[in-house]
Amino acid sequence: MGVDAYKKTRVQRNVGRKVTSTNLYLKLLIKLYKFLARRTDSQFNVTILRRLQSTRTARYPISVSRLVKQINTAKDKTRTLVVVGTVTDDARLLTVPKLNVCALRFTETARKRILSAGGKTLTFDQLAQQNPTGTGTILLRGPKVREALKHFGRAAGLPGSHAKPYVSHTARKGKGAR
Question: Is the pTM value of this prediction over 0.70?
Answer without folding.
Answer: yes
